[in-house]
Automatic annotation (TrEMBL), chain A:
Any one Gene Ontology BP term: intracellular protein transmembrane transport
One Pfam assignment: SecD_SecF_C
Sequence ranges assigned to domain Protein export membrane protein SecD/SecF C-terminal in this UniProt record: 373-543
Localization: Cell membrane
Name of the protein in its database record: Protein translocase subunit SecD
SUPFAM superfamilies: Multidrug efflux transporter AcrB transmembrane domain
Gene name of this polypeptide: secD
Assembly mode: Forms a complex with SecF. Part of the essential Sec protein translocation apparatus which comprises SecA, SecYEG and auxiliary proteins SecDF-YajC and YidC.
InterPro entries referenced in this protein's UniProt entry, alphabetically: Acrflvin-R, SecD, SecD/SecF_arch_bac, SecD_1st, SecD_SecF_C, SecD_SecF_C_bact, SecDF_P1_head
Stretches that traverse the bilayer: 394-413, 420-439, 487-509, 515-539
Native organism: Poseidonocella pacifica
Domain Protein translocase subunit SecDF P1: 185-242
Record function comment: Part of the Sec protein translocase complex. Interacts with the SecYEG preprotein conducting channel. SecDF uses the proton motive force (PMF) to complete protein translocation after the ATP-dependent function of SecA.
Family recorded in the similarity comment: Belongs to the SecD/SecF family. SecD subfamily.
UniProtKB/TrEMBL annotation, chain B:
GO cellular component term of the entry, any: plasma membrane
Function: Part of the Sec protein translocase complex. Interacts with the SecYEG preprotein conducting channel. SecDF uses the proton motive force (PMF) to complete protein translocation after the ATP-dependent function of SecA.
GO molecular function, one term: protein-transporting ATPase activity
Protein name stated in the entry: Protein-export membrane protein SecF
Record NCBIfam families: 2A0604s01, transloc_SecF
Membrane-traversing stretches: 20-38, 143-164, 171-192, 198-219, 250-268, 274-298
UniProt entry tagged with the keyword Transport: yes
PANTHER family: PROTEIN TRANSLOCASE SUBUNIT SECF, PROTEIN-EXPORT MEMBRANE PROTEIN SEC
Residues of the Protein export membrane protein SecD/SecF C-terminal domain: 116-300
Length: 553, 322
């Protein structure tokens, strides 16, 4: 008859207890959040009475997971950036040119003299003077190819060499481009993370999206613009030989040379050799400092290979100027006074103190391998989020009370059972959200409110079925049993179909919509659990005590 | 005394005017599609690109003055609307400003946003900017594709599920009802020109889920009754099933609507469009599960006896056991 094994009862109540315990910290949101932050700080090495007092606000034997609030509820900045992966192709080809030049020079007898031709940035075009020498040149250059380092592109070589008349064209191969793109995006992700960590904001979300996009969300930051200031500059530092100095921005630089503006003086331009002597990649450290005239500057140190290259170059070029270039602008172009060994130096320019600090941070975190294009940016003020939370709370309360009254009025005692289940249900949703560290968004709150309305559906199905069965079944116990049994297939079908839509929303949605999908999906799971198991235990317990002869549903 | 929304025992004939109902639904679907094609949806920046700025000031919003000052900046299409909510006091005046995506730029130019903010501060010195959101045309184009795909995928997945659990006629009936609900919702959004953004897609999918929930409960009962009453005509069985589940259908709709209306009135203006879509969807979904899904099922007919091979089929596998 109407029975539930003891172990099942224990299991059901146990699950409920665990779920509610997990939800508990959310009732003391501010306190738990502070305690968690304080504990994290203690792990990181901060000590002190204040931190310990804050950590003590929440006992550590209690669960301390809380629901993360989404940007729309907490306020903050959101950016979606696309990494311009093609930037890297050009840099790669530029860096490849000296190697090409040296290889072909060695074979001068076969290919004649060589000249670099103007071309698309991602292609090197080399013209050879010897008629028919292009084929031989191409052969030599193919010998410079390296195998692609990636799982998918294994076996392919990194460059593609073709000929066109007297020209030899060198580009990156398709496989190498894919591998490069992958590296570029990963590197950018890492460097963005480092830069944001350097600034020290809490709980940033930095995720890769799709092939070449990066999503950055920083709660509590004033605006997306601030975030862009931190991650928007590529901070590519190069040391390049200066060919000449000019005031004409349209001057025609020679092949393998480029013309760049000066950072400080709008009328000055420098013609530089494109291939850098050393780049910022070979920096090991950068710190804000002051020069001998007490102006803000940035000191830097090269790694051994950078130090060697820099030392050799300075030894060979005493008396000629070289340029320190940051993101296509010449910061300064000092004349080399002496051989600089030891690999450290200092960058001076017209910096303010904040600028030198900022530049040091950027140089330390590393340059972005490619530029970023911002596709989406959102700034949500904290007041708006607070308003939304407030409104969401009130609406949930009203919805809750409305449904509770309505259920009690419709089903009497059984309605009360359903109401207890509903209360547990909402607790469980929060428990699960905290457990998986999900993010609650405004649509997510709507999802919870909707769940409050829909969660009773399973109970309604069961109770309506019990009403029907009371008419035909022998005795109330049998009616209850049949009610649960026969309503089950409808409950499962109805909830599985809704669950399917929640899964699709989760997979295809992003941001707030995903938050909605999560609460909706969890709400379905918990409501089926509470409706089928919790109310059943409640009803069985009641039935065992009272043994009613008739059933009032 | 219990609250009863539906009499204990009903025996209503839901199919006596089924042609009329189907006709009305068909007309409404055509109207919705026409509105969708002629007026189009009022896409939010999620789908069309552009920038929205939410402002708040203590002084009342002077839409005319805002417009004049922003027009001077020559930003193309600018729309300004005041936002009302019962929770706002007289000191809280909120406006939404929407600027079209600028040529050649993906996300917003910081200089443009600063210019807008300065211009507005001249008109209304205490104005604050609660949110600034900007989406580039590239992303919005993709978002709209993904959104459309999501709705189609949801409907497709459900079609398959019901097909597996029931018969294909059930699946087809349910899906026709779903499409009906989705189209009518889009129609309302285009007719009333309510802003259509990503959240509304979430609402649409929820409507799909809800409407289906309703339909599946009725169908589940139909399946049960078909086995129970093998000789009653389909129409009677369908009617009986709908009557038997009617009380539940109404109860669930009412509790869900209760929650949704609370959210609509008190949940703030940010999600009002989203909640509106769901309220509309619940109403239409409840209607369609009876008057569209079941009516379609009646028209499609069902193979009644699962135990015997179908006599009408007549192919070589039909009588394999005979």
């Amino acid at each position: 008859m109407l029975q539930i094994d003891l172990w099942k009862r224990v299991l059901i109540w146990g699950l409920v207890a665990v779920g509610l315990a997990l939800a508990l910290p959310n009732l003391f949101y501010g306190r738990v959040e502070q305690a968690n932050d304080a504990r994290a700080a203690m792990v990181a090495g901060t000590a002190g009475d204040e931190v310990e007092a804050q950590a003590g606000q929440w006992p550590d034997w209690l669960p301390s997971g809380i629901v993360n609030l989404g940007l729309d509820l907490r306020g903050g900045a959101h950016l979606l950036a696309e990494v311009k992966v093609e930037d890297v192709y050009a840099a790669r080809m530029e860096a490849f040119w000296p190697e090409v030049r040296d290889a072909l020079r060695d074979a001068r007898s076969e290919v004649g003299t060589i000249r670099l031709q103007p071309s698309e940035a991602d292609t090197l075009v080399v013209r050879v003077s010897e008629p028919g020498g292009a084929a031989r040149a191409a052969e030599i250059l193919r010998g410079l190819a390296q195998p692609v380092v990636s799982l998918t592109g294994a076996g392919a070589s990194d460059i593609e060499v073709t000929t066109r008349g007297q020209d030899v064209l060198v580009t990156l191969s398709e496989a190498e481009r894919l591998a490069t793109d992958e590296r570029t995006v990963r590197q950018s992700l890492e460097i963005i993370r480092r830069r944001i960590d350097e600034v020290g904001t809490r709980e940033p979300t930095i995720q890769r999206q799709g092939a070449d996009r990066i999503l950055i969300q920083v709660p509590g930051l004033g605006s997306a613009q601030e975030l862009k200031d931190i991650i928007g500059t590529t901070a590519q530092l190069t040391f390049q030989p200066v060919v000449t100095r000019t005031s004409d921005p349209d001057a025609n630089p020679g092949i393998g040379e480029e013309i760049l503006p000066s950072l400080d003086d709008p009328d000055t331009y420098y013609v530089l050799e494109t291939a850098p002597v050393v780049t910022g990649e070979e920096l090991t450290d950068a710190q804000p400092t002051f020069d001998q005239n007490n102006r803000p500057a940035v000191s830097f140190r090269f790694n051994p290979s950078g130090a060697r290259k820099f030392g050799e170059y300075t030894a060979e070029n005493i008396g000629s100027p070289f340029a320190i270039v940051l993101d296509e602008e010449v910061i300064s172009a000092p004349v080399i006074q002496s051989h600089i060994a030891g690999g450290s130096g200092i960058i001076t320019g017209n910096f303010a103190v904040e600028e030198s600090t900022h530049l040091a941070v950027l140089l330390r975190a590393g340059a972005l391998p490619a530029g970023l294009e911002f596709l989406e940016e959102r700034t949500i003020g904290p007041e708006l989020g607070a308003d939304s939370i407030e409104a969401g709370k009130i609406a949930s309360m009203v919805a809750f009370v409305g449904v509770l009254i309505f259920m009690a009025a419709s089903y009497g005692l059984f309605g009360l059972f359903a109401n207890i289940a509903l209360l547990i249900n909402v607790g469980l949703i929060f428990g699960l959200l905290s457990l998986i560290g999900a993010t609650l968004t405004l649509p997510g709150i709507a999802g919870i409110v909707l769940t409050i309305g829909m969660a009773v559906d399973a109970n309604v199905l069961i109770f309506e079925r019990i009403r029907e069965e009371v008419k035909t079944a022998r005795g109330p116990a049998r009616a209850i049993e049949l009610g649960y049994e026969r309503a089950l297939s409808a409950i499962l079908d109805a909830n599985i179909t809704t669950f399917i839509t929640a899964v699709i929303l989760f997979v295809m949605g992003s941001g707030p919509v995903r938050g909605f999908a999560v609460t909706l999906g969890l709400g379905i799971l918990t409501s089926v659990f509470t409706a089928i198991f919790v109310t059943r235990v409640l009803i069985v317990m009641w039935f065992e005590r009272r043994r009613p002869k008739t059933l009032e549903v | 005394m219990r609250l009863r929304l539906v009499p204990q025992e009903t025996n209503w004939d839901f199919f006596s005017r089924s042609k009329l109902w189907l006709g009305i639904s068909a007309v409404l679907v055509v109207l919705a599609l026409t509105s969708f094609l002629v007026r189009g949806l009022n896409y939010g920046i999620d789908f069309e690109g552009g920038t929205t700025i939410r402002t708040e000031s203590a002084q009342p919003v002077d839409v005319g003055a805002y417009r004049d000052t922003l027009n001077a900046l020559e930003l193309g299409d600018v729309s300004i609307s005041e936002v009302f909510d019962p929770s706002f006091g007289p000191e809280k005046n909120v406006a939404m400003i929407r600027v079209q995506a600028q040529d050649g730029a993906e996300s917003a130019d910081p200089a443009m946003i600063a210019a807008i903010q300065n211009a507005l501060q001249e008109v209304s010195p205490d104005v604050e900017f609660l949110s600034v959101e900007s989406v580039g045309p590239k992303v919005s184009g993709e978002l709209i594709q993904t959104a459309a795909l999501a709705v189609v995928a949801a409907i497709g997945a459900v079609l398959v599920y019901i097909w597996l659990r029931f018969e294909w006629q059930f699946a087809l009936g349910a899906v026709i009802a779903l499409v009906h609900d989705v189209v009518l919702t889009m129609g309302v959004f285009s007719e009333l020109q309510i802003r259509f953004d990503l959240a509304i897609i979430a609402a649409l999918l929820t409507i799909v889920g809800y409407s289906l929930n309703d339909t599946v409960v009725v169908f589940d009962r139909v399946r049960e009754n078909l086995r129970k009453y093998k000789n009653r005509p389909l129409r009677e069985v369908l009617n009986l099933s709908i009557n038997e589940t009617l009380s539940r259908t109404v109860m669930t709709s009412v509790t869900t609507l209760l929650a949704l209306f609370a959210l609509f009135a008190l949940g703030g203006d940010v999600i009002r469009g989203f909640v509106f879509a769901m309220i509309w969807g619940v109403i239409v979904g409840t209607y369609s599960s009876i008057f569209v899904a079941s009516a379609m099922l009646l028209r499609l007919g069902i193979k009644r006896d699962w135990s015997k091979p179908d006599a009408n089929k007549g192919n070589q596998f039909a009588n394999v056991d005979a």
